[in-house]
Amino acid sequence: MIINPETIGYLAATLTTASFLPQAILTIRTKDTESLSLSMYSLFTLGVFCWLIYGIYLSNKAMIFANAITLVLATSILAFKIYNILFKKG
Amino acid sequence: MIINPETIGYLAATLTTASFLPQAILTIRTKDTESLSLSMYSLFTLGVFCWLIYGIYLSNKAMIFANAITLVLATSILAFKIYNILFKKG
Which positions 28-87 of B are in contact with A (Cβ < 8 Å)? Predict the structure, then answer.
């Protein structure tokens, strides 16, 4: 059986994005960010942004697809975290 | 200022790998996996494995570097989780 390498790329994109979804849904639904680390999410969000830029440079659709979705989710979580730090208790 | 696109790739690789390190160190040090999700880590580990294979196919060093390190860390966490489920309380 020969697997198209691009299929591996899309499988990778789907799996890592899907693994991030439950945390994103939980945070967006509850707005509770107390157990999340600001420094970890800041590094992660900036990293995903860089992967997206790099994916656009490589014209790699699997990288663009995965990182665009993850960036929206990670930015939402980070925004809730920063809002809670500024206006609530953490 | 012109930034080399490969630098963006390595920056992305370093940032997302670094953001995963604190969780990995905490889990490997404490061996406590109760608050970690088996399904989430299974999807993530399989996804990182696919990104590594895809990176090898693309001969992309930043992708290989980031995903090889993350795969070792994620597999260690998953192994602790499965061990704890089988022999301890979760």
Answer: 37, 40-41, 43-44, 46-48, 50-51, 53-54, 57-58, 60, 62
Flag whether residue A25 sits within 8 Å of chain B, measured between CB atoms.
Answer: no
pTM for the whole thing? 0.89
Please, where are the H alpha helices in chain B?
A: 5-30, 38-58, 61-87
ipTM of this complex: 0.88
**Distance, CA of B17 to CA of A46 (rounded, Å):** 12
Residue A28 pLDDT > 90, yes or no? Answer: no
Measuring CA to CA, which residue among A45, A22, A30, A24 is closest to residue A84?
A: A30
**A51 contacts on B by Cβ (under 8 Å):** 9, 12, 16
Instruction: For domain B5-87, give its CATH number from 1.20.1050.10, 1.20.1280.290, 3.40.50.410, 3.90.1570.10.
Output: 1.20.1280.290
CA distance B89 to A30: 27
User: Domain map of chain A by residue range?
Assistant: 49-90
Cα(B87)–Cα(B74) distance, rounded to whole angstroms?
20
Answer yes or no: are the C-beta atoms of A5 and B54 closer than 8 Å.
Answer: yes
